[in-house]
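User: Predict the complex with shikimate-3-phosphate.
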Amino acid sequence: MQPIEEVSQDTMAFVVEPGGALSGRLRVPGDKSISHRAVILGALAEGVTRITGFLEGEDTLATLRAFRDLGVSIEGPEGGRVEIHGVGMQGLQAPEEPLYLGNSGTSARLLAGLFAGQSFDVILRGDESLSRRPMRRVCDPLARMGAFIETTAQGTPPLHIHGRQPLYGIEYAMPMASAQVKSSLLLAGLYASGRTCVIEPAPTRDHTERMLAGFGYPVEREGAKVCIQGGGSLYGTVVEIPADISSAAFFMVGAAIGKGSDILLEHVGINPTRTGIVDILRRMGADIEIKETGVVGGEPVAAIRVRASRLHGINIPEDLVPLAIDEFPALFVAAACAEGETVLAGAGELRVKESDRIQVMADGLQALGISAQPTADGIIIQGGKLQGGEVHSHGDHRCAMAFAMTSLVAKGPIIIRDCANVATSFPGFLELACGAGLVIRSRE
Ligand SMILES: O=C(O)C1=C[C@@H](OP(=O)(O)O)[C@@H](O)[C@H](O)C1
Ligand SMILES: C=C(OP(=O)(O)O)C(=O)O
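Assistant: Here is the predicted structure with shikimate-3-phosphate placed in the model:
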């Protein structure tokens, strides 16, 4: 295995030229959340799991590498295909070294839950950004289940997860709407005695629950409460992963704002816990057509057509926030191009993602001449004319790709700094964006 580059190469910039329009048919890479879960459950299953559409991005490759380091035999990925020879619930082996998870919060939080129930110790580490992400949100409830996990004094990684701790099922009402926290506890719950129940303050993505069922593990849902009984088994299966709506989101926004644009995004996952972007853009006046084309791996998929239209500012309903949580950098760009004011509140979680996405986007939009006022848990954006200029993504993949879309309406060239992490969720973004009509190149 190649040595892993632990210090991010923060030198890569995108340069985008003004103008252009998006057109054609695009298929963005596989869903990141579903790809992580397919590897995790495939590794724990009895028998072989065959995955297609796997996201070959750095985040999901970090999860895959972690299981190889725990003795799981995994073939691929090659063209999105991965074959996992599951070792069963008790078959993971102690890793020789700490596991390096790069930029991936999902890997750190989900694996913390899973490893809490093992018979060996594991240390989880990450890059600069992951080393700042809050982990008490999983470590505290896991401790209530009997886990023993050490963090830094700030509650951040590295995480030292001590094995050989008997776990007990609990009922936990999450203080924040987080699919990572829910999934972490459910994975620990597989190893706990009794029932583990998680209550959500608002619906969050439910890929873990759907996929557990797909691997033959019963999951009960009663309203906002999801429960599993520990001690069962998972069975290898076939998992077809749809294109990631969070990656499609950049092109949805680009097509909505770019004069003359008309694109068709193919085979996109439209799980209702992920489609907040569609609801919000439609409320802003976007022209979006959705043609459901089937269900793959327990997830609904669709072709999404977006044509340019005049957008107007809105007050974003708070109940849509968890359903569009990763799409706000792109939505802020839509708001910057809309007529009037867009107000977002109840989205404090954006401040603890790969970057403080409220501040980073506000700074960037201001640098491009837009009035963007951060608040404690949101932002107020006045639509206006975007100028050219220089913005900084602070190593945040979603901010980098969102800023790239501003070129469709900007008056001058834009330099976006620190874009290497785009590969964490969207390998091939530059080529796909170029092919669709964005005038974009990278610069070292
Ligand atoms: O469970 C998941 O796969 C994810 C859940 C969300 O995080 P939170 O659980 O922190 O909201 C999201 O932002 C992240 O990109 C992926
Ligand atoms: C927040 C994200 O991912 P993670 O939490 O896995 O780093 C994201 O991809 O936008």
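The pocket of phosphoenolpyruvate (ligand 2) is lined by residues 59, 103-106, 326, 353-354, 398, 425 (CB under 6 Å).
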